[in-house]
Structure formats: C-alpha cells, structure tokens
Specification:
Blueprint: H1 6-14, E1 29-33, H2 38-49, E2 54-59, H3 62-76, E3 81-85, H4 91-104, E4 110-113, H5 131-146, H6 148-157, E5 166-170, H7 182-185, H8 190-195, H9 197-200, H10 209-227, E6 234-239, H11 255-268, H12 272-284, H13 290-293, E7 297-299, E8 302-304, H14 313-333, H15 335-344
Parallel strand pairs: 1-2, 1-4, 2-3, 4-5, 5-6, 6-7
Antiparallel strand pairs: 7-8
Protein name: Short-chain dehydrogenase
Organism: Vararia minispora EC-137
C-alpha cells in the first residue's frame, strides 16, 4: 500500500477513534515501558480502569515511578501499580530490569513497549550504539526476548478462550518516510553502520533517524512473530498517529519553523489519550482477533500494510540480517538471551 496520501492522513487525524472498550483484566499482569508521560501514561490509565491484578510501569527513575503511580491512582482510583526503574540506553539496566521482573512477578500477560526518543543529534551510548536506535529498537528487542519465557509460562495458565499474552511495540507512520540507502543495505553490519559517527554525520542521516528506528520496530516484530508462529504469544506493532506529547522535546526549531510546527500540531495532532487508543486496542481486543494482529502493523484500530520498502524483497532481507545481528550482539550481553533464542525460536521458512 505504501505511504498514505496526505489527504487521507490528515483526514484520519481529525476524526476521533472509537472509545476504548473496557475489558476485564482481572487475573492479568500488564507491563508498560515508558509510562510516565505521553501515550504510555494514557495507555496506563486505560489499563488501570480495567482493573488488572497488577499494573507495572517502568520509568527512568524512582521519582518518575512514584509520580506516575500517584498520577494514575488519582486519575483512575486504581492502586495495584508497581514501578520499576530502567534506563533503556544501557543494556545492563535492561537485563537487570528483566531479571527483577521475572523473579518478582508470577505472570506477564501484556507487555507494551512505548518508550522512545526522537532526536537528530548523534549520541553514542556506553554500549557503543547510536542512542535513539538503542532506546527505540535494541533495548526493545533485548527486553522482549528476555521476558519471553515469562510470557510463555503465563500462556500455559491462561484458559484456551482467553486472550493470549501479547507484546505490543509502539512504532509509527513515520516508518513510511524512510528507505534505507544502498550503502547500508550492502554493509557488512547494519547495526554498526547505523551507529557509526562518520556515517551518521553525513547530511540527512540523523534527520530521519527517528523514522528509521520505527521501521526497525516493524522489522523486529515481524521477524519475531514469524519465528513464534505456532506459539501462544501474539506480537504486533502500533501506529498511534501524530499526537501532542513530549516526543519532540529534543528537536530544536525556532522562529518561523517553530510557529509552523505549532500551527500544524494545533490543527492536526491528536491528544495523547486519543493516540493511546490503538495501543490499548492492540493489547486487549478480543481473542478472535488475535490471529489477524500477529506480526502486523496496526493503525487507527485496523491492520495496515507496512511501507513499500518494508514489504519489498530488500526490506525482508534487511529484516533477517538485523535479526541475525541482534542475536550476535545480545548473546554477548546476556548468557540467558542465547538460551532463550535456542529454546524458543524455530527457523522461519525461507
Ligand atoms: N507522539 C507522536 O506523535 C507519536 C507518533 C507515532 C508514534 N509515536 C510513538 O509512541 C511512543 C510513545 O511516544 P510519546 O509520543 O508518548 O513520547 P514521549 O511523551 O516523549 O514519551 C516517551 C517515553 O519514553 C521514555 N524514555 C525515553 N528514553 C528512555 C530511556 N533511556 N529509558 C527509559 N525510558 C525512556 C520517556 O521517559 P522520560 O520521560 O524519562 O524521558 C517517556 O516515558 C513512542 O514509541 C513513539 O515513537 C508517537
């Protein structure tokens, strides 16, 4: 289907999405990554109103956890909320968070990865990767796979008719706006290339970095879903639409450009609550929909085809290359990671 046309996109932005239909989440544990502001916070409030047995939020600091727990409690009256700290720009923090969660929690029914950064400024993390790629993609991959055994165990205890454990990764329509260049596609190691200072200093590379990270979300979830086919886990990506949040806090614009942006946001941005609806829908919609969601990109509460590049031969080849690279990277980061991969992933059909 490719990039949505401008008229279609802007019209959709104006129309309200259907209200979230409440589900009974009793007995369920919901984990939200990036829950202190924006779409994650609004999604957390929706989940809280559905009274899960536990709502777990992961934020960058204890203070942010405490403030968020209080905000959700005040807004919804729900109090079975636990905060965990995690810094997604540090692999050891992600590993520690996953270990703590697995040790302290009995089940994991819904895992939502909403955290992200949008920046055009190059920063290299202590692990050696471009920061937004590490936060938006690599940590999402690492965490999702480290928590897979917990979700698999949860699936064993779910009734056959109950919704299966779900992984919802928040991607974006921005992924339609990026086509990786030939030099990246033919490079020996894509993750290293995307973190290389010389490469990232080339004109235009960091301008579309956020868009690229959202394309990598799509690749990861599609490959994961394919390798988990036949398993009880459902994985999908979500596009919440363009929403007014803190996401652009690192993007510096001034003068006329700032005014244009403000005007555009005022006219077309959804509220964070509206944007959170597709996320929550993906996480809790009825079990008869599950097959249709698995491995797919959801926008405005329906399955949409991903970008032309994502569905091209080159796109699928890049997806598989990234998967292999990711396995190599994380096998060095956590011994448990490799064990999980060997245990749970079948090779997809070529
Ligand atoms: N807003 C939009 O228009 C839009 C459109 C399409 C897709 N999305 C996607 O929606 C998701 C949520 O975005 P949003 O708009 O709600 O953005 P946001 O308001 O900026 O929220 C981002 C969240 O990510 C967390 N985060 C960032 N870096 C982190 C780190 N190193 N460790 C732990 N947490 C970290 C932030 O925590 P801190 O507060 O501590 O930084 C915050 O909770 C993202 O995946 C984004 O790509 C947004």
């Amino acid at each position: 289907m490719g990039k949505p046309n401008q008229l279609h996109f802007h019209t959709k932005q104006w129309y309200p999405l259907p209200e979230v239909e409440p589900r009974d989440l009793s007995g369920k544990t919901v984990v939200l990554i990036g829950a202190n502001v924006g779409l994650g916070l609004e999604a957390a409030k929706h989940f809280a109103r559905m009274q899960p047995t536990k709502l777990i939020i992961a934020c960058r600091s204890i203070q942010k956890c405490e403030d968020t727990v209080e905000e959700i409690r005040t807004a919804t009256g729900f109090s079975k909320i636990t905060g965990y700290t995690v810094d997604l720009s540090v692999f050891s923090s992600v590993v520690e968070f996953a270990e703590n969660l697995e040790r302290e929690q009995e089940r994991l029914d819904i895992l939502v990865y909403s955290a992200a950064v949008a920046t055009q400024i190059y920063n290299r993390t202590g692990d050696g990767y471009e920061q937004s790629m590490q936060v938006n993609d690599l940590s999402c991959m690492l965490l999702s796979i480290l928590l897979l055994p917990c979700m698999m165990e949860t699936a064993k205890t779910s009734a056959m008719t109950a919704p299966r454990p779900r992984l919802v990764v928040v991607s974006s329509g921005a992924h339609f706006l990026v086509t990786p260049s030939q030099d990246v596609l033919s490079s020996e190691n894509v993750l290293e290339k995307y973190s290389d200072l010389d490469y990232c200093s080339q004109p235009g590379v960091m301008t579309i970095r956020y868009h690229l990270t959202k394309l990598l979300n799509v690749f990861f979830v599609r490959e994961l879903a394919e390798r988990l086919s036949g398993s009880p886990i459902i994985a999908c990506t979500v596009n919440p639409g363009y929403c007014k949040t803190m996401l652009s806090r690192n993007v510096r614009v001034s003068g006329l450009a700032a005014l244009r942006w403000w005007l555009y946001a005022t006219l077309f941005a959804r509220t964070a609550e509206m944007g959170s609806r597709t996320i929550v829908w993906a996480a809790v919609s009825e079990s008869h929909r599950e097959k249709a969601l698995h491995g797919h990109f959801l926008s405005d509460m329906e399955v949409r085809e991903e970008s032309d590049f994502a569905v091209s031969k080159e796109g699928f080849a890049m997806q598989k290359k990234l998967w292999d690279e990711m396995i190599q990277v994380f096998s060095q980061v956590s011994p448990r990671f490799k064990e999980i991969v060997d245990r749970y992933f079948s090779s997809p059909q070529e």
